[in-house]
Amino acid sequence: MEKELLEFNCSLNRRHFLSKMSVGIGSLALASLLNPKSLLGKEKESNVASGITGILDSPHFAPKAKRVIYLFQSGGPSHLELFDYKPLLRERNGEELPDSVRNGQRLTGMTSGQDSFPLAGSQYDFQQHGKSGMWISELLPYTAKIADELCVIRSMYTEAINHDPAITFFQTGSQQPGRPSIGSWLSYGLGSMNENLPGFCVLLSRGTGRPQGQPLYSRLWGNGFLHSLHQGVQFRSGKDPVLYLKNPPGVSRTDRRQMLNSLTQLNEISHQKFGDPEIVSRIAQYEMAYRMQTSVPETMDLSSEPESVFRMYGPDSVVPGTFAANCLLARRLIERDVRFIQLYHMGWDQHESLPSQIAGQARDVDQASAALVLDLKQRGLLDDTLVIWGGEFGRTNYSQGKLTKTNYGRDHHPRCFSIWMAGGGVKAGFTYGKTDEFGYNIVENPVHVHDFHATLLHLLGIDHEKLVFKHQGRRFRLTDVHGHIVKDILA
Q: Cα separation of 275 and 478, whole Å?
């Protein structure tokens, strides 16, 4: 008898208990993670299989933007050559950067050992454009034509001084890898507006400025500790825009459907046994991939676009994988209600030969960026689509390496830089923030990365302090424990 009681007691260990209770506990955990209010019986059942339902019933307040296109210029575009006109640097070209301006601020290892820090004035002219009189470089003639659509922030700053942590900071709100990206947070919070395409799509292009510059990593559009359902899906140039989407030779669409039905049954059994919410995410991903077999080829097929559209975006728009082609594709994704589209354009890291490199890099993006804004506007999509253009930091006002009459380079500069936004509830033809006459420090209306994220979420109707996810005993959010809405740029 004692032996039987002992065996019975041993069977009631923690693992056995959780195993037996996995259906009930697992279901409750899944419901609380995917849609906690459903536990209160106040909502319709979440459509998990389609991946369209976010954690929020609805935005916290009326959104001004429903969709976002983020044109991320990887490498750090020089604000001094593009948007922040500093004639003093030309006047004092070759003179030493005053110690009172630098004030002992941190430098990268690439220039900290220099004996001299000669000021380098831009070799490119600036003019005022539009009714707003916005200063824009001659490197961006097409962007200059849409000056009255732009909200330029000249007072961005960051804490990161090197590429990887700086890009990671902008994309996830943390310099350390492992946090969810912006698109993943939006997918988690608001869900998707399209059942046949991912709510978060990623497009990459390589520029002509410094083609073999800083690499990009898939974790930049990763889901971090959120469910894998929310990770970004990369669209590639070539015959297979999304890897492993096509059926292998000899497998018909009917065969694929039958296989997925069987996999779903097996995964449901696993979920009942283990209660792991990632199993439900896996089912949703399989179903999404099945629907994408039809939707992706239709989206990528540009044959229906008139010739006038290709002329608007420029000659590169017919070349798959270029920035121009990706901008056109972004517009097509927006038309199909993809919520967040991230374009990365590499090549802006001009440590040397900046005058020639940045000219090519600007040509890569200028016409297509402007065309995207105009195209969205003429289709009635710009009002509720936010377009963002910018990189991870700016460039130094002094030359990295030797300064000559025709050549110079610029190092990383996190203290101030410029980005622009258009549509989606921001003021048009508006310039915000100001840097000193050397283009080195901010003297008016600084905007931190966390402030940028808080404002972005606000435009989408989200209170950045309320979109949270509990992980390892702590509540995380995109803005961490920081962030202020930049109300002055809101329309």
A: 27
Tokens standing for residue 93: 């070209």
With beta carbons less than 8 A apart as the criterion, state whether 342 and 232 touch. Answer: yes
Half-sphere exposure of 475 (CA within 13 A, CB side): 6
C-beta separation of 282 from 265 below 8 A: no
The pLDDT tens digits of the residues spanning 31-88 come to 333 443 333 333 333 343 444 579 998 899 999 999 999 999 999 999 999 999 999 9
Query: What is the structure's pLDDT at 264?
Result: 86
* Segment holding 390, helix H or strand E: strand 385-390
Q: Is 142 helix (H, G, I), strand (E, B) or coil?
A: helix
Q: Is the pLDDT of residue 30 over 60?
A: no
Q: How far apart are CA 97 and CA 271, in angstroms?
A: 63
Residue 443 · residue 86 · CB < 8 Å: no
Considering only 34-48, 418-432, 436-450, which range has the smallest mean pLDDT?
Answer: 34-48
Q: What are the DSSP calls for 143-210, one per residue?
A: HHHTGGGEEEEEEEE-S--SHHHHHHHHHHSSSSTTSPPHHHHHHHHH--S-SSS-SEEEEEEE-SSS
CA–CA separation, 103 vs 441, rounded Å? Answer: 10
464, two tokens: 């950045």
Report the alpha-carbon distance of residue 275 to residue 271 in Å, rounded.
5
Q: Which of 309, 263, 307 is nearest to 283 (CA)?
A: 263
Q: Give the bridge partners for 476, in sequence order.
A: 469
Helix ranges, 301-419 (H) = 307-313, 323-335, 354-378
Whole-structure pTM value: 0.87
Structure tokens at 310: 């290709």
Q: Give the pLDDT confidence score for residue 282 in this predicted structure.
A: 79
Q: What is the CA 68 to chain-centroid distance, rounded?
A: 9
Tell me the two tokens of residue 366.
């200028």
Q: Does the pLDDT of residue 449 top 60, yes or no?
A: yes
- Among 440, 197, 228, 474, which Cα is nearest to 329's? 197
Pull the structure tokens for residue 325: 């082609």
